[in-house]
Amino acid sequence: MRIILFIFLLICALSPFHGISQELGDESYGIASFYSNSFYNKRTANQELLLKTEYTAAHRLFPFNTLVEVTNIYNKKSVVVRINDRGPYKRGRIIDLTEAAAKKINVRKVGLAKVKIKIIGFENELMLIPYHQLELENTPKFSKKFYQKTRLKYKKKYRIKKTIKHKRYLKKGKKPRSKMKIQR
Known about the structure:
The protein has helices at 2-14, 99-104, 144-147, and strands at 27-34, 56-58, 66-72, 78-85, 93-97, 113-122, 125-126. It is of the alpha+beta class. It has a six-stranded mixed β-barrel. A hairpin with a 5-residue loop joins strand 3 and strand 4.
């Protein structure tokens, strides 16, 4: 019995674990829904108060405070939401949106929509390039000019003229005549 247990533990230790990991730029497709009115003004799994006006969402696997871009496949509208809850627990759905986020991508009217989910940041840090592609080309140089406020060089203000004296310039196809003659 001990030998079988030892072999089982050895196989478990040597076999690679293929857990679900989240990397920047990972995409997944599925059906999105939105919260029912009974969930608002209650605590989420992150112990935050769920509000209709915030751009937050619920996902089963992504860590809390993961920034996700949700794109409606039918109309190509997208919204960036932060994961702060667990769910949805209905089969086939991958994300629950708040009312403000659902209105932005027109899921509120329909009820359910096919969406693409893309991870774009972690812990309130919005990243557009994956971490493993970031490299420092040169050492940064700091100067005093960088921290100064910019000043305008020109104080002259320009206005758009309401009336134009020479309307022939506005007609298409006509070029203005030059008064100077070219001597050869």
